[in-house]
């Protein structure tokens, strides 16, 4: 089996799976149970001056019957005394010396206060420090959290203060609530940070109760913007991690966070350069036990791909993300429907008509399958034909049995066809088709050499506009 | 016309619902399973063309009242249809989920969920904005066909009077449908909803002598009289111990029949026979046999109805024909198909204990009554109509439902009624109002 051992910013890790600083790392008892379940590390729930939380404090976005596609919280940092948190860190490290414990910190923006906090955390035995410059709610009003993370100068200054005394690696946790995440990443690097972690939660309002008009979560009739996380934020996090890792002025070891819940998510973040991954929402949803498959699935995949260690594939996808102007304009694909798999839902038909380029037809009237269709029925004509048709209940003895569809699953009349001469290869139909592998995109050789926008405009002597 | 009815507690207890209501959570999950097909095959398969994906998506978004209104636009008896339709061979039978080896969407139960919610909240069938017209139409018969026709005519602003000879309106929806599918009170709830659209329902039998007066009084007449009496069992042994299936079903549904003999033989193997046999079981019979003169592959009952009867403990006696009845014993002869393909009676005889014999061998058409309406073409026991408009060969008369299609399902009667109403308004020169 492939090895999941890794070294992150000088910290030895038995695997790259860490718990993010959040409720799952609230206390020592929890963190020890997590380690027993298989987690390689934990970033302690942010320690600072204890605060008081409100209730309620979470709300979620459910989608199509699935719970918690996105989670939102208006929780603050730890509401437990600093001494107790530190004593528990010491206890955990004593019992689990091979596991990683990172202290997440957030204190008042004063040099002496930070110095004091850093020393205490390291004395307790933490393997590293994570500076929480991200919390979007509550703390920012007091000049902490994202109030720091959104101003590069402050972020750099506080990182410098911390580095003045820190003996262990310092991670700066970035907020996504900023136009260009690289700006603060560069500032952190300038300030001497050893590593980065990203992303913290995204400012959000998950929804509004249509009976009471109060946004969620409801705190005695009022609400506040909260931080969004969970599966819904993964694409945003993936983009932010990629953009930091592809930027020479920002790049540092990266502990990736945001919507990670399975080994597949983890592998994707490792492919854009992450060193470790952190998980919060998925654990809040299903518990620590999810790490078992994360470990098992990742090493299984690595074995199949022939990767012996995480370093063998870390960052492999980075060079494949590029600017639009470097994409090949002469690459052409068209949609192809596998008639033997099609179930006749006609979702591709309506999607292409209303949302793409009107080249999927349900009337199979003229021309060869790969040729241009001259006559076709507009979608609403199909619906009107149905509405005015006369249907009767099929009675076994009186009505002939349903006609067989031959080797097709659906009646031929319901299997749409693509007019390949009109298809722009946008993918939409293949995205809406509910049947796996039914619509595939086929490359059509155009006979032209690859050419990018940059090359084309250079050739034509056009000056770039944007 | 009566809708006043008190259900009998004993009957209610013996006939619990076969397909109980979905809970809100379950409905939500099920609704989200629907793919929202375009020009959906389920919609095409529904005789009234209820826009299935449209109403299901509304359940998924929590717009239950809107869902019910979308359903009602296509089918005013949607509450009954949700319960009594053979969805297995209609909408659910054509759901694309079959092609991907998944269970079809529970369209019937979702429809019921929306309709129960609608009536449960005391909402009214929405009536379209239109002027009241000085036009009057009579609907003869108060079953699904007439009720649907009447509701659709009201939507166009036409004055409608429904005549029915029975105590309670609703036709077989009230008196014929098995109680574990739909209770009498649920049928009557729908009748009331249609009455509240302004449809007048009178309890009156229309006799041959009434046609002339009706033709004078009304601009058009819709015939939705259904079928007539059940065919009689013409065998020696008399009438003692014989109860036809329709009387049995109507009897227990209205609480007049509360028990039946220990042994019952039901003759015939259509859906009505199945209903009568299952009802006999539930009314306390120990042994219930269905006696059919052909084999299982030829029965006219739907496959799922047959399966249901087996589950209820009904036994099937194939290739047998009753030839005599005496003192609780039914004498049956074996049957077979000869070389010419005809059904012949063989030598073998079997005796079957049967305190009660229930013929369920089909209803006869109201031939005499219908053929006395002058100018109406009548063939093979059915009124001949133009399928798209319900128009008969007499300009003033339209028809639909069992009397036209020879006896299909409630939803077919509703579709017929709706089409006929549109045919009538077109014939009377009423401008078409935009609708779904
Ligand atoms: C036992 C049984 C069970 C059934 N179960 C189901 C089921 O589970 N699901 C399903 O979809 N379908 C079922 N059906 C079929 C369904 O009930 C019929 O297809 C449907 O009711 C037909 O509607 P209709 O309006 O044409 O006729 P009917 O419902 O028969 O209504 C006709 C009405 O006309 C009245 N009438 C007749 N003559 C006159 C007159 N001269 N003057 C005044 N009134 C008159 C009658 O009293 C009756 O109320 C069942 C049928 C039977 C017999
Ligand atoms: C309830 C809750 C409390 C959190 N508290 C902290 C915190 O104290 N310090 C911190 O740095 N991040 C905190 N976070 C942010 C998480 O550490 C993490 O960055 C974010 O949730 C994204 O990861 P996920 O998508 O795996 O949840 C909190 C998140 C949640 C949901
Ligand atoms: S790829 Fe886009 S344009 Fe081509 S058929 Fe599919 S939806 Fe239409
Ligand atoms: S979306 Fe897929 S399954 Fe549906 S009609 Fe199109 S090709 Fe067939
Ligand atoms: S066919 Fe099935 S999946 Fe498609 S719209 Fe109808 S119920 Fe939904």
TrEMBL record, chain A:
- Per its UniProt record, what CDD domains does this chain match? DHPD_FMN
Protein's UniProt keywords contain Iron:
yes
Protein name in UniProt: dihydrouracil dehydrogenase (NAD(+))
Q: Which domain of life is it from?
A: Bacteria
Q: Which residues does the UniProt record annotate as the domain 4Fe-4S ferredoxin-type? A: 333-362, 414-444
Please describe what this protein does: Involved in pyrimidine base degradation. Catalyzes physiologically the reduction of uracil to 5,6-dihydrouracil (DHU) by using NADH as a specific cosubstrate. It also catalyzes the reverse reaction and the reduction of thymine to 5,6-dihydrothymine (DHT).
The species this protein was found in? Terriglobus albidus
Query: Which keywords does this Swiss-Prot/TrEMBL entry list?
Result: Iron, Iron-sulfur, Metal-binding, Oxidoreductase
Which NCBIfam families does the record cross-reference, listed alphabetically? PRK08318.1 (NF006183)
Is Oxidoreductase there in the keyword field?
A: yes
């Amino acid at each position: 089996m492939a090895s999941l051992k890794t070294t992150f910013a000088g910290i030895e890790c038995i695997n790259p799976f860490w718990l993010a600083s959040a409720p799952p790392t609230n206390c020592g008892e929890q963190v020890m149970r997590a380690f027993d379940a298989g987690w390689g590390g934990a970033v302690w729930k942010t320690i600072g001056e204890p605060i008081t939380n409100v209730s309620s404090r979470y709300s979620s976005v459910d989608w199509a019957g699935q719970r918690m596609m996105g989670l939102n919280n208006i929780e603050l940092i730890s509401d437990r005394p600093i001494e107790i948190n530190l004593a528990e860190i010491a206890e955990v490290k004593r019992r689990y010396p091979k596991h990683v414990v990172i202290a997440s910190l957030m204190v008042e923006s004063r040099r002496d206060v930070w110095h004091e906090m850093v020393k205490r955390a390291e004395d307790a035995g933490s393997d590293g420090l994570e500076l929480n410059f991200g919390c979007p709610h509550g703390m920012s009003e007091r000049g902490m959290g994202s109030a720091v993370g959104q101003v590069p100068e402050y972020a750099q200054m506080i990182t410098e203060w911390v580095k003045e005394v820190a003996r262990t690696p310092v991670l700066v946790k970035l907020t996504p609530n900023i136009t260009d995440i690289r700006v603060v990443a560069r500032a952190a690097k300038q300030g001497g940070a050893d590593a980065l972690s990203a992303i913290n939660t995204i400012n959000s309002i998950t929804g509004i109760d249509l009976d009471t008009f109060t946004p969620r979560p409801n705190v005695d009739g009022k609400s506040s913007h909260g931080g969004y996380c969970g599966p819904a934020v993964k694409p945003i996090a993936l983009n932010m991690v990629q953009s930091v890792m592809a930027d020479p002025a920002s790049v540092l070891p990266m502990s990736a966070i945001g919507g990670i819940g399975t080994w597949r998510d983890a592998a994707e973040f490792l492919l854009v350069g992450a060193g470790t991954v952190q998980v919060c929402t998925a654990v809040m949803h299903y518990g620590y036990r999810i790490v078992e498959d994360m470990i098992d699935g990742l090493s299984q995949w690595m074995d199949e791909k022939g990767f012996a260690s995480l370093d063998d594939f870390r960052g492999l996808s980075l060079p494949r993300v590029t600017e639009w102007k470097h994409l090949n304009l002469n690459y052409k694909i068209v949609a192809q429907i596998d008639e033997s798999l099609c179930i006749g839902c006609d979702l591709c038909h309506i999607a292409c008509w209303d949302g793409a380029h009107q080249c999927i037809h349900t009337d199979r009237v003229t021309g060869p399958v790969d040729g241009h269709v001259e006559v076709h029925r507009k979608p609403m004509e199909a619906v009107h034909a149905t509405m005015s048709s006369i249907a009767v209940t099929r009675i076994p003895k009186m009505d002939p049995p349903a006609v067989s569809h031959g080797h097709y699953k659906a009646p031929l009349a319901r299997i749409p066809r693509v007019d390949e001469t009109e298809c722009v290869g946008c993918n939409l139909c293949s995205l809406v088709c509910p049947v796996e592998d039914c619509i595939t995109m086929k490359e059509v050789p155009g006979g032209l050499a690859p050419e990018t926008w940059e090359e084309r405009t250079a050739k034509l002597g056009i000056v770039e506009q944007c | 016309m009566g809708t006043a009815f008190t259900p009998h507690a004993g009957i209610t207890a013996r006939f619990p619902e076969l397909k109980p209501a979905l809970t809100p959570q379950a409905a939500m999950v099920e609704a989200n399973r629907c793919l929202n097909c375009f020009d959906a095959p389920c919609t095409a398969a529904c005789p009234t063309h209820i826009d299935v994906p449209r109403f299901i998506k509304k359940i998924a978004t929590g717009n239950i009242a809107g869902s019910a209104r979308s359903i009602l636009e296509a089918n005013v008896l949607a509450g009954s249809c949700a319960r009594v339709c053979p969805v297995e061979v209609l909408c659910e039978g054509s759901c694309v989920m079959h092609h991907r080896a998944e269970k079809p969407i529970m369209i019937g139960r979702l429809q019921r969920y929306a309709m129960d919610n609608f009536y449960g909240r005391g909402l009214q069938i929405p009536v379209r904005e239109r002027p009241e017209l000085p036009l009057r139409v009579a609907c003869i018969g108060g079953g699904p066909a007439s009720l649907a026709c009447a509701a659709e005519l009201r939507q166009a602003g036409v004055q409608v009077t429904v005549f029915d000879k029975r105590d309670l309106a609703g036709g077989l929806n009230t008196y014929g449908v098995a109680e574990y599918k739909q209770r009498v009170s649920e049928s009557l709830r729908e009748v009331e909803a249609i009455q509240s659209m302004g449809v007048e329902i009178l309890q009156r039998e229309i006799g041959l002598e009434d046609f002339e007066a009706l033709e004078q009084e009304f601009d058009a007449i819709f015939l939705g009289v259904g079928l007539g009496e059940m065919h009689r069992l013409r065998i020696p042994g008399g009438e003692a111990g014989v109860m036809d299936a329709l009387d049995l079903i109507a009897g227990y549904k209205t609480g007049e029949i509360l028990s039946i003999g220990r042994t019952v033989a039901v003759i015939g193997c259509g859906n009505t026979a199945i209903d009568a046999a299952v009802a006999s079981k539930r009314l306390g019979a120990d042994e219930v046999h269905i006696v059919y003169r052909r084999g299982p592959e030829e029965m006219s009952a739907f496959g799922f109805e047959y399966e249901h009867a087996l589950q209820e403990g009904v036994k099937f006696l194939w290739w047998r024909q009753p030839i005599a009845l005496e003192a609780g014993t039914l004498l049956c002869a074996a049957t077979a198909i000869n070389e010419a393909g005809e059904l012949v009676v063989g030598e073998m005889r079997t005796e079957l204990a049967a305190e009660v014999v229930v013929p369920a061998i089909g209803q006869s058409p109201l031939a005499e009554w219908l053929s006395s309406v002058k100018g109406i073409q009548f063939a093979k026991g059915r009124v001949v109509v133009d399928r798209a408009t319900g128009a008969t060969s007499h300009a003033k008369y339209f028809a639909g439902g069992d009397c036209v299609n020879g006896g299909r399902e409630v939803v077919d009667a509703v579709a017929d009624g709706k089409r006929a109403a549109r045919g009538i308004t077109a014939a009377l020169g009423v401008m078409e109002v935009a609708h779904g």
